[in-house]
Amino acid sequence: MANYTYTPGGNTNVDYLRLLIPDRLNNDVLPPAVFTDEELDAEIVLWGDLFSAAASCCEQIAMDKAKQAMIVTLEAGSGGSAGGRQLVSIDKRQVPKFFLDRAKALKEAAVNDVGENVDSFDYYVTHFGENRGQGVGNGELLVDPWDRR
Known about the structure:
Number of helices: 5
Shape: globular
Largest sheet: 2 strands, antiparallel
Number of domains: 1
Strand content: 5-15%
Helix content: 40-55%
């Protein structure tokens, strides 16, 4: 059974991730959120940090919303679209862009979060291909978490 939880101001990883996406619960619809708690836990394990996991979730939402991107216009009056009077126009093309922009910002936050934990590092590879570099600070190397080579 799928679980959907969110506590405003809560301190679980699922609460933080739902806040970042945003994917907070709406109990008036089923399912009440895009992602289940189990899917969010899996994203955190897969990506290793909340910002990267949230960016991945936003990209998934954008792909889903891109399938629904359209303009709907309701008109009234005689003459159809050429002579009708426009009443309502709904443009859903910007929804995927919103989530892609959010994903980009979250990726930048993930990289900056890693960069703030690193004071400096020395990269040195011997002619035998041995890495003799040393990190200064907390010992983490500054890497691009999105480079999945």
